[in-house]
C-alpha cells in the first residue's frame, strides 16, 4: 500500500477570491476526485482548524493499493483538470509518498 500526503499553503488572494474562498473551492475540487480510479482505499481532505497552531492550510491524505493506482490517479483527466486552479492559488506545496 502507498500513503500519499500533500499539504498546501495558499496565497491570501488569488483568482479574484480570498484564501478562505479558495480553500473551500480547492477542498471541493479535491473531494471530487475521491473515487476516480479503483484502488483508492482512503481519501481525506481537510483544512486547518482556526485558532490552532498549523503550518499548512490544506491537506490531502490518501491510502492506495500501489504505485500504479497513484500514477493512475495523478494522470486521471478529472485530477489533471483541477491542477491549473491549484497552481494558481497555491503559494507552497509539500508532498510525501511512502509504502505502508
From TrEMBL:
Cross-referenced InterPro entries: Dabb, Dimeric_a/b-barrel
Superkingdom of origin organism: Bacteria
SUPFAM superfamilies in the cross-refs: Dimeric alpha+beta barrel (SSF54909)
Boundaries of every Stress-response A/B barrel domain copy: 2-98
Pfam families the UniProt entry points to: Dabb
PANTHER family linked: BLL2683 PROTEIN, STRESS-RESPONSE A_B BARREL DOMAIN-CONTAINING PROTEIN
Official protein name in the record: Stress responsive protein
Protein source organism: Limnohabitans planktonicus II-D5
